[in-house]
Amino acid sequence: MEDDIKERASKGSKSKIANIIGIIIVLGIIAVAVIFIANKSNAKRKTENLDIEKIIDIKKLMFVSPDEAIKLLGRQEITRKTTEQSIYIFQRGKFEVVFENDSATMVRIHDLNEYKFDSSLLEFLGLPATKPTISSDNVLGWKNVEGIKAITAFPPAFGAYIVVNFKE
Hints:
Layout: H1 2-47, H2 66-73, E1 78-81, E2 86-90, E3 95-100, E4 103-109, E5 134-135, E6 140-145, E7 148-154, E8 161-165
Antiparallel strand pairs: 1-2, 2-3, 3-4, 4-8, 5-6, 6-7, 7-8
C-alpha cells in the first residue's frame, strides 16, 4: 500500500510538472506572437508613413562644406579622394556625401528597406510628397524639387537607396 501511495504521488507530481511545462510553452508562444504582431504593426506604421520621422532634412546638406556635413551627420568613418571629388561615408554607410571643390553635390542614402517605395519617400527627406517624373517598379525619379536638381530612389530589390543630386 505504501508503494502504491508513493507511485501515485510520483505520477501526480510528474503530471503537475508536465502541466507547468505546457503552460510555459504556451505563454512563450503567446509572447513571441505578441512581439511579432507589435513589430509588424510598427513596421506597417512606418511604411504607411503615418508617423513621418525624417531621415534627414536634405536641404541642410545642399552645397555644404565637409565640416558642415560632419556637424550634421557626425564624424565621417571613411574618406575617399580622387582628383575631382572627396566622398565621405557617415553612420556606418547610411550616408555617402560627394564633395566637389569642398561643396556637397550629391548624397546617397542607403538602408531604406523599411520605407514604402512611393512618392512619400520625399517626406523622409524633409521635402513635400510630390508625384515622381519617372515612375516604375524599379525606380522613382524627381526633377527640380525645392531647388534640388534630381532625386532618384531604388526599391529593396535594387538596394533600397536614394541618390540626391544638388547640381546637374
